[in-house]
Design a protein that fits this description.
mainly beta, 2 domains, four-stranded antiparallel sheet, single chain, Immunoglobulin-like, globular, Glucose Permease (Domain IIA)
């Protein structure tokens, strides 16, 4: 690990609410959002940054280093700490998170077992949960994506935004951790950036699912698919077809649930897609 002098870290991090480099996601330091933080460090090698004891994606744009931090939906308002490890004592700095209230969504699920699973279902769900968590928590040092700006993976209207407080058959469940895109069964799903198919499977709630690992803790997830076209371990390029939209798992109709995970935290995919940001601004 390179040696970083303490003097370089005096006032090390600046929040970057306006980033002109197109390869960076939108800064939105709220629960479920992303903090894009410029580092006051000019060295040739990336510094090592962590948040809540998890490694953070660090990338270079416009000849500056940036930490790209995923903020969990459970995060409280106030100052949050980042750690920078050096050969000397670890350094600490903070960034501010502001609160956000997400809307409610109430859905009626006809298959009652998808809301209240039986004992056999719970055994399956427990096993699958470990696989899903492992795929989302994976870390590889190299950032494979040639940009942190992602393409929309399929065509269709946005049916359920990120962060909704969800009720299935009037029973509260976890907030919506992805973005739903309504599309007919069989609609192609394309990789939003370069990566590797790190895992796939048919899961009780998520149905046919694919995970693409883009490196440095950036993982995208595709749920309720009709078909999966590529095997685990396949390297994909932006625009490659990975499968098709379907209605498998717990659904009310055909759609793609698209999730983005950053430092093992589920964040709003819109922050990575300029086209969707423009749509929201126009509303």
């Amino acid at each position: 690990m390179m040696k970083l002098h303490t003097a370089l870290f005096a006032g090390l991090l600046l929040l970057a609410p306006s980033i002109h480099a197109m390869e960076l996601p939108q800064h939105n330091a709220v629960p479920g959002g992303v903090a894009v933080i410029a580092l006051k460090y000019q060295g040739p090698l990336a510094p090592t940054v962590s948040y809540r004891d998890k490694p953070v994606l660090v990338t270079q744009a416009n000849q500056r280093w940036y930490a790209i931090v995923g903020i969990p939906l459970s995060a409280k308002s106030g100052d949050h700490n980042l750690m920078i490890e050096t050969q000397g004592p670890a350094l600490q700095t903070s960034f501010a998170v502001t609160g956000k209230t997400y809307k409610e969504q109430r859905l009626t699920i006809k298959n009652k077992r998808k809301v209240n699973p039986n004992e056999k279902d719970m055994t399956r769900i427990s096993r699958e949960s470990k696989e899903i968590k492992a795929a989302l928590a994976n870390w590889q040092d190299e950032l494979l994506a040639n940009s942190l700006r992602l393409n929309i993976p399929t065509e269709g209207p946005l049916s359920s935004p990120f962060g909704l407080r969800r009720f299935f058959n009037d029973q509260p469940r976890k907030p919506h951790s992805g973005l739903d895109i309504a599309a007919p069964t069989g609609t192609p799903i394309k990789a939003p950036a370069d990566g590797i198919i790190s895992a796939s499977g048919d899961y009780f709630f998520n149905g046919n699912t694919v995970f693409i690992d883009h490196g440095q803790g950036l993982v995208t997830m595709y749920c309720h698919m009709n078909s999966i076209d590529l095997a685990t371990g396949t390297q994909v390029k932006r625009g490659d077809i990975i499968g098709t939209v379907g209605a498998t798992g717990r659904v009310t109709g055909a759609h793609l649930h698209w999730g983005v995970s950053l430092n093992n935290v589920r964040v709003d995919p819109v922050l990575f897609v300029p086209e969707l940001q423009k749509q929201q601004s126009a509303q």
